[in-house]
Design goal:
Layout (H helix, E strand, L loop, with lengths): L2 H14 L9 H7 L5 E2 L6 E2 L9 H10 L1 E2 L15 H12 L10 E5 L3 H8 L5 E6 L7 E2 L12 E6 L9 H11 E8 L4 E2 L14 H8 L10 H9 L3 E5 L7 H7 L7 E5 L6
Parallel strand pairs: 4-5, 4-7, 5-6, 7-8
Antiparallel strand pairs: 1-2, 3-9, 8-11, 10-11
């Protein structure tokens, strides 16, 4: 068996059983506990390593080529609570910025909701909490982000964490987010981006899973996003509130909690004037 395929299967089996620790290979957890240099910010477990996002040279090549800032693919998942680096980073930002209090009594729209973040928000007594996706699960509502089925000025908070990169018509998605947000409502719009590119990199002939993986770094990504162009697009509809990671967290914080030290928080405020 190809060694890459073998390790992919091992990782897949571990990830499937993450919610049931008793089913995870005990040896892996014991060995990972010997050197407690990492700590999951969400569950508090201490260990030596997170598991990687995926073992795939195409992902590494695309990230390296465009110097993409996004997930910390080498410190992706926690073996104990199954949160990923993007979940942990939002928890860190929300704690530091005291954003949790803004969820109380608020109307919230959350695309592709992360389990750990959803549980936290539900405990904060929001006025209305809509969990949604184009391909919904469990109690999620089916919503197309380019055609959000809610009236204007409805939500106080919108969370769209690493979703925009999957949307072919992302400009329509941005417009819709602005439409459904109340004046002075805010949105979290994290997405992987390249600071190297002046404009987004996309081509209509990059239209198969294999090509998207090779050029964009993932089979379901629609482009490589230019940070410069993305922020310019957002600024047409919102006031930007970009929080620099290094203004809040040390390099050691990022290493210990397994988050990308280069990923800033992309938060926008809806001023309802820039149209």
């Amino acid at each position: 068996m190809n060694i890459k395929i073998f390790f992919k299967k091992i990782i897949r089996k571990i990830r499937k059983s993450l919610g049931l620790i008793k089913r995870v290979d005990v040896d892996i957890l014991v060995l990972n506990k010997k050197n407690k240099i990492k700590e999951c910010y969400i569950c508090g477990e201490q260990f030596e390593n997170y598991y990687k996002y995926r073992i795939d040279n195409e992902v590494d090549r695309a990230i390296s080529h465009f110097q993409t800032v996004g997930s910390d693919v080498d410190n992706y998942g926690c073996y104990y609570c199954n949160c990923n680096d993007r979940d942990r980073h939002l928890f860190m930002y929300f704690d530091k910025l005291s954003l949790w209090k803004k969820f109380n009594n608020a109307k919230i729209l959350h695309f592709a909701p992360e389990i750990s973040l959803s549980k936290k928000i539900e405990k904060l007594s929001p006025n209305e909490y809509v969990k949604c996706d184009l391909f919904p699960k469990e109690d999620w509502k089916k919503i197309d982000i380019t055609k959000i089925d809610f009236e204007d000025n409805y939500f106080d908070v919108l969370i769209c964490n690493h979703v925009i990169e999957h949307i072919p018509n992302h400009l329509q998605a941005i417009k819709e987010i602005s439409r459904v947000l109340k004046k002075n409502g805010f949105a979290i719009l994290q997405t992987p981006y390249s600071e190297l590119l002046y404009n987004h990199f996309e081509d209509q002939n990059i239209n198969t899973d294999e090509l998207r993986l090779s050029f964009y770094g993932q089979e379901d990504h629609a482009r490589i996003i230019s940070k410069r162009q993305f922020l310019d697009e957002l600024s047409r509809y919102f006031d930007l509130n970009i929080v620099k990671n290094d203004s809040l967290f040390s390099v050691n914080d990022c290493f210990r909690y397994g988050v990308n030290k280069m990923e800033d928080l992309i938060m926008v405020i809806n001023n309802k004037t820039n149209k």
